[in-house]
Write a structure and sequence with these properties.
By secondary structure, the protein is mainly α. 53% of the residues lie in helices and 6% in strands. The protein has a two-stranded antiparallel sheet with strand order 1-2. A hairpin with a 5-residue loop joins β1 and β2. α1 packs across α3, α1 packs antiparallel against α5 and α5 packs across α6. It is elongated.
Length: 144
């Protein structure tokens, strides 16, 4: 299974904020740290804020901070939210699959997708930044 770019970025933003300590990087700084376009980072940050996983303050002294809900959030739940609940394959698209009514593949792929999510459920954002990841994340920051 391949994650959407927004899912990948959401996880990386949360991990980056988990090691930020007292600093409050801006969306622009996080985008630079992650080497992604600012507009893409801003959309992901807005969704994470909407989900209550991070807080964003504007203006002087503003920036992004991870909420307690963000630190303890299940990686599986975050991935499910960003990926959506669609099937791995589109059997009913513009050209519906002729095997749709008797296909066993669709169910197998759905079970595999759910197993993928379930394997991520016990992990939290906090777990993901344990050493050696956390110190490495601090090292990639563009901030002094």
């Amino acid at each position: 299974m391949r994650l959407l770019r927004s899912t990948d970025l959401a996880l990386r933003v949360l991990m980056r904020l988990a090691v930020a300590g007292d600093s409050t990087p801006t969306t622009r700084e996080v985008a630079a740290d992650m080497d992604v376009p600012y507009t893409h980072a801003a959309k992901v940050v807005a969704e994470l804020q909407h989900l209550g996983l991070l807080a964003a303050r504007r203006g002087r002294g503003g920036g992004l901070t991870l909420t307690e809900a963000g630190r303890t959030a299940s990686v599986g739940a975050i991935v499910r939210t960003f990926e959506g609940d669609g099937d791995v394959v589109d059997c009913e698209g513009a050209a519906p699959c002729p095997l749709h009514s008797a296909c066993r593949l669709r169910g197998a792929l759905r079970r595999a997708q759910e197993a993928f999510f379930a394997s991520l459920d016990p992990l939290t954002v906090g777990d993901m930044v344990a050493a050696p990841t956390g110190p490495l994340l601090l090292g990639i920051s563009s901030r002094p």
